[in-house]
Write a structure and sequence with these properties.
The complex is a heterotrimer. By secondary structure, chain B is mainly alpha-helical. Chain B contains 16 helices and no strands. Chain B starts with 12 loop residues before the first helix and ends with a helix. In chain C, strand 1, helix 2 and strand 2 form a beta-alpha-beta unit. In chain C, 64% of the residues are buried. Classes of the chains: A alpha+beta, B mainly alpha, C alpha/beta.
Chain lengths: 443, 310, 443
């Protein structure tokens, strides 16, 4: 290798060694610098330049793209969401991590606990996204979160017998979907009424339901029938009990006068009911809403209003372990004698926590916080995966917006570049923080 | 020891050294103290158990969903499998593995993440050593720039590099995806290894040089073995990072070179009806990171900790 | 089950259209064996297309027929979902396919504008002229030059229903939009809500709108709106939205209500009608619904899964919204002459009949023998398509820039999803649509 050179320079071996070493150094760093230069530094400059041109790249628009960021409602929404993310997520994570780190110090199985919480760090955001899409599923039969919510709710409220039923319109009953329904005209004791309903699927009928039959009224009461005014095949006259139409058993019927319930009855298997013990007078027959209450469906986690909090929650699931373990390591490094001395002096645990633990932990907390801010700023996959199409825009953050603008149909590379430059500018403080920290630690 | 200390640390090894067993004091307050400590401790235990359950549940949901038929998943939730384990089978997995697209994507994930990891470690080790121990003009300045590049978001590289790759024929290829990952993995890798290598005592290197070892020999025989812990952490972190990536591959890979994450992502559009594909797919993509996690716990935690500044 | 991934096609086809500068993979599909004799023996024609699975297999049968006839070897290269990026990269890489099957009219136009396409040969144009309704020629023509030969068509004006639900409710196939809503309400009375609507997939909503608009406002306005020479704030748009809103806001007509519909994707909407636990009686979408109903839920077309044509709105003509895959010849192909021969072959009824027999295919060619279709339902869809002749219109959102008509969570998809959630303000929705259209069309 380079024999001629070696021979000529042999007179000055020191200088030669120096030069050789230098050349070697260049060989060592060159691959890294080439890649960094071509794929990191150049793109930063390119994006910066590209951000001053229009969508197609032909026309110089100056700061036009940056102005567009402020004027585009969808992008503004993304900026608003990014702000929420950056403010909320790192704070929650640092707080939660600190709390759990302190608590785990008190149990023997701390290692196992930390392992469980740290586990999601191994999971890709894509998988985490799928996991949470499953959990947030709106149908309480499928989404575990709503199953829990509905379970708690239904423990306190009974489910109605006929959630889908509604009164046949223009046949004597008034009231909107979901009830209550009441007769348009008042009824006197000794009369009977037939109350027709529709909208109950054959397989949703109670098993014991029989063909509808009206009950004859007693003199001091109102009789009648509550029935399904729909015979299979659509035959029959609306408003009349036709052959083949069934009664609706178990329906609560009230007779009300002057807004007060005078008496109630429940329909039998054939839908018939007797309300008895009524004084003479004009009554309204009512079917209370409780008969029709739609089953509680839980919370729509991925609705426009909740989608961002829901995704942040998924993010917490992934990152809490990180915050906890790092803060835990910081806690373990706090000298016990300082704490002990404070205790001897009669300080309460709260005081110790605030006056000693937190200040001593401050550097660790700062590192955790800054790290999280950087990472939160770049969050992409989770939002992209969890947000369903209809609420994509409500969930967008800068990184997803940048993606959609540049590649997701808009293909506005000018605006996309401007957004990526904004994203870069936002992490510059963190960059400076890193450099400073590095310099202080003594290069 | 104050009477109202309800939050007490258990005597860790460290604390025990500082604070020997407390001398017995008046029995009354002491018992109360112990009672409240016991109580608070069980409250803490309860809280932590609850938290751990909350953390495990979503993962369990994924696992169980992945083993239920499409029909079961469409009609009710995974928790019904807890009382009716007959729902569970591996059919989804065998169907998934038979699907050549998913199998190929799984292969691509390996083809992307393994070379990336190897390249990042190799290139960064060389550069890290040079930045730590070799003199060359502008060394410290360049290194500061590298530190600065640590936080550059990959987003900024997407468009320009896509154009660049398009021009040289790398767009849509595994090579392109790998190169992009390597470039964006380097700043952190160099930073980590340079700092670790810098901690090697100067005398050791001097001695080796005196013995006439070439820089290459010193690097390969001394520095690399000494740096093994840092390299292991780095490799694990880098591997996971790339294994779990979706964004980069979403742009740079095409239908032939896409990794598992992207293949699954394309099924997300029809989430509700695709659970029996998505859940096992997601779980499949988890298996390798989980194995790495349990096999290399210590390195893993260190790697992720160190890498998180990225 | 290829059709549902239409979404994928739509979103990604242009997702990276801006990156049509790139170079790509070396995908290679199946090859058909060489044949001896024939005018093109020894030559190879490379065909690229998005088709996978059974669609690809069936198309290869067509290619085999070409081989048999001419002796040319054929290679099918799957392009992945993003034809535009794929072709762009191949052209740049110097190994362009000879023929591309283009799935969207927007992509066809893009190719033509890039100058990648070769005009149809006289023979191909003449054959097409006599066998295709002129409207197909229009959609294959860019700036006065005829480039794209439509080979495979989609029929997007079919309303699918479960016959047993209709029997149970005693309704029959409606002949007008008003009748359809009436039948829907009767269905709801019988306990089975009328329509399953896949609100999570924005494209199904645009298809709803397009059918109503085409029938109500007529083909001229439809074309103008598709070109965006007519503003979305036009009264006709507001009227169509009002008509659509009548359906959207009626709880009896939308299965589960709007919120649930927004969480329903296309396959789930089919499942709601044809799945094991039916929740709705009808689902509107294209002819491919039949494929899902048979393939996934084991229904038999014409027996337990039927369709009726999307009915006429307000006395207009019944709409036929369509779409299709056009064959184009690339200038840069190595063997574009033989490629043109393939197009001439595809223009012929005999080529279409090969696939028609295999199923999952509609031909726009009016000389195709209806007897060659494998089942009655497909036959009647094909018949309806041919009968509609020149009044066919292409899917409007497919013609629009992707940012407006083909992006998850943006443009028309997003706004119609918002409209489904709250259909109270058609005027406001029209204004928002116009604002988005202006941005996307740039006029």
């Amino acid at each position: 290798m380079a024999d001629a050179l070696t021979a000529r320079a042999a007179t000055n071996p020191r200088r030669l060694a120096q030069r050789k070493k230098r050349r070697l150094a260049v060989v060592f760093v060159l691959p890294a610098l080439l890649l960094l230069g071509a794929l990191v530094v150049y793109p930063v400059l390119f994006s910066l330049g590209r951000s001053f041109f229009d969508a197609g790249g032909d026309r110089f628009v100056g700061a036009g793209n940056y102005a567009a960021i402020i004027h585009d409602p969808a992008t503004l929404k993304a900026i608003r969401n990014s702000t929420i993310w950056v403010v909320v997520a790192p704070l929650l994570l640092t707080g939660l991590g600190l709390m759990l780190a302190v608590l785990t110090e008190k149990v023997r199985w701390a290692t196992a606990f930390k392992l469980v919480l740290f586990l999601p760090m191994a999971v890709s955001f894509l998988a985490a996204g799928i996991i949470f899409r499953l959990a947030y599923e709106q149908d309480p039969d499928r989404g575990v979160l709503n199953a829990a919510v509905v379970g708690v709710h239904d423990a306190f409220h009974d489910a109605a017998a006929y959630p889908t039923a509604r009164a046949r319109e223009d046949h004597g009953l008034t009231g909107g979907a979901g009830g209550p329904y009441s007769t348009e005209e008042t009824v006197r004791p000794g009369r009977s009424v037939s109350l027709g309903f529709v909208g109950v699927a054959p397989d949703a009928m109670p098993a014991g339901a029989k063909a509808a039959a009206a009950a004859a009224p007693d003199t001091d009461g109102i009789g009648g029938v509550v029935y399904l005014d729909f015979a299979p095949g659509g035959a029959g006259t609306p408003g009349k009990v036709d052959p083949g139409e069934k009664g609706l058993p178990g329906m609560v019927v009230e007779a009300a006068r002057d807004g007060r319930v005078a008496a109630t009855a429940t329909t039998a298997d054939d839908g018939s009911f007797h309300i008895t013990g009524l004084a003479d007078g004009e009554y309204t027959v009512r079917l209370p809403a409780a008969n029709f209450a739609a089953p509680y469906q839980g919370v729509n986690w991925l609705s426009p209003a909740l989608v961002t909090p829901a995704i942040i929650a998924a993010y917490l699931w992934v990152w809490t372990g990180f915050a906890m373990v790092l803060i835990g390591a910081g806690l373990a490094a706090i000298p016990r004698d300082a704490l002990e001395a404070a205790r001897m002096d009669g300080a309460t645990e709260g005081q110790i926590f605030r006056k000693i633990t937190v200040p001593l932990l401050a550097p660790v907390l700062t590192v955790v916080f800054v790290t999280l801010v950087i990472n939160v700023m770049k969050v992409f996959d989770l939002v992209y995966i969890i947000a369903p199409g209809p609420v994509q825009e409500e969930a967008n953050v800068l990184a997803t917006r940048m993606w959609l603008v540049s590649f997701g149909g808009g293909n506005d590379q000018g605006l996309g570049s401007a957004l990526s430059v904004v994203l870069l500018l936002l992490v510059v403080p963190a960059m400076l923080f890193n450099i400073q920290r590095f310099r202080r630690s003594g290069a | 020891m104050s009477g109202h200390s309800t939050i007490e640390r258990p005597p860790t090894r460290h604390a025990a050294a500082v604070r020997p067993v407390p001398a017995p004091s008046a029995p009354g307050p002491r018992r109360r103290n112990r009672m409240s400590r016991l109580l608070s401790n069980s409250v803490v235990q309860g809280v932590l158990i609850l938290v751990a359950l909350v953390w495990i549940t979503p993962l369990a949901g994924l696992l169980l969903s992945s083993m239920r038929s499409e029909r079961d998943n469409a009609s009710d939730g995974w928790w019904t499998a807890l009382t009716d384990p007959s729902q569970l089978s591996l059919d989804n997995y065998s169907a998934l593995l038979k699907d050549s697209g998913i199998a190929a994507a799984f292969g691509n994930t390996i083809l992307i993440s393994v070379p990336t990891t190897a390249l990042v470690v190799a290139i960064a080790a060389l550069a890290g050593y040079a930045f730590a121990w070799l003199e060359f003009p502008g060394r410290d300045g360049i290194f500061l720039v590298v530190v600065g590049l640590l936080v550059v978001p990959v987003q900024i590289g997407l468009l320009p590099v896509a154009k660049l790759f398009g021009a040289v024929g790398l767009f849509g290829t595994i090579t392109g995806v790998v190169l992009f990952h390597v470039a964006y993995g380097l700043p952190f890798a160099i930073f980590l290894l340079r700092n670790y290598f810098a901690g090697i005592p100067r005398e050791m290197l001097e001695a080796a040089r005196m013995d006439g070892g070439s820089e290459w020999r010193i690097f390969s025989r001394l520095v690399l073995p000494l740096g093994r812990p840092a390299i292991a952490s780095l490799a694990i972190f880098q591997f996971l990072w790339v294994w779990n990536d979706m964004l980069v591959a979403l742009l740079f890979a095409d239908s032939e070179s896409q990794p598992l994450t992207v293949a699954l992502q394309s099924q997300m559009r029809q989430f509700g009806s695709n659970i029996s594909v998505l859940a096992p797919g997601a779980f499949l993509s988890l298996v390798v990171p989980l194995v790495v996690f349990f096999a290399f716990q210590r390195h893993f935690v260190q790697g992720v900790m160190a890498g998180s500044v990225k | 089950m290829r059709r549902p991934s239409k979404t994928t096609r739509r979103t990604t086809a242009t997702a990276t259209a801006a990156l049509a500068l790139v170079l790509g993979a070396t995908a290679c599909g199946g090859t058909t064996g060489p044949a001896s004799g024939g005018e093109l023996s020894g030559q190879t024609v490379t065909v690229a297309g998005v088709w996978t699975g059974s669609e690809q297999e069936n198309f290869k049968k067509v290619l085999d027929a070409f081989t048999e006839k001419t002796g040319a070897r054929t290679v099918f290269v799957p392009s992945g979902d993003n034809v535009s990026t794929f072709v762009g990269s191949k052209i740049e890489g110097g190994n362009a396919p000879d023929v591309v099957m283009v799935p969207q009219v927007g992509v066809l136009q893009q190719f033509a504008k890039e100058g990648w396409l070769q005009p149809l040969s006289d023979q191909a144009a003449t054959t097409a002229g006599s066998t295709l309704a002129p409207v197909w020629k229009n959609y294959g023509t860019v700036d006065g030059t005829y480039y794209g030969l439509y080979f495979k068509a989609a029929h997007k004006s079919t309303v699918w229903y479960a016959p047993e639900a209709f029997t149970q409710a005693g309704v029959s196939e409606p002949k007008s939009y008003a009748d359809m809503l009436k039948a829907g309400r009767t269905l709801a009375d019988s306990g089975r809500p009328a329509f399953a609507i896949a609100g999570e997939d924005g494209w199904t909503l645009t298809d709803w709108f397009e059918n109503i608009y085409l029938s109500q406002a007529g083909p001229e306005k439809y074309d103008q709106l598709a070109q965006h020479t007519l503003k979305w704030t036009d009264d006709s748009v507001v009227k169509a939205l009002t008509t659509l809103g009548e359906l959207f806001k009626d709880k009896q007509l939308v299965a589960g209500g709007a919120e649930a519909a927004l969480g329903t994707d296309f396959p789930s909407s089919v499942a709601q009608v044809f799945g094991p636990e039916p929740k709705a009686g009808m689902v509107y979408e294209g002819d491919f619904v039949g494929g899902v109903a048979t393939g996934q839920f084991g229904k038999k077309l014409g027996e337990d899964a039927k369709f009726f044509p999307f009915p006429a709105v307000d006395g207009g003509k019944a709409p036929v919204v369509s779409g299709g895959d056009a064959a184009v010849v690339l200038k840069d192909g190595k063997n574009s002459k033989a490629g043109m021969k393939l197009l001439e072959f595809l223009a012929d009824a005999e080529a279409a009949e090969v696939w028609a027999g295999a199923g999952g295919f509609l031909s726009p060619n009016n000389e195709v023998d209806l007897a060659s279709y494998s089942d009655d339902t497909t036959r009647s869809t094909a018949d309806s398509l041919i009968t509609a002749g020149n009044s066919i219109r292409f899917d409007m959102s497919d013609q629009a820039p992707a940012a407006f008509g083909g992006t998850k969570g943006a443009g028309e998809w997003k706004l119609l999803q918002d409209f489904l959630r709250d259909p109270s303000d058609p005027q406001g929705t029209a204004a928002k649509l116009e604002a988005e259209a202006v941005k996307a069309y740039g006029n």
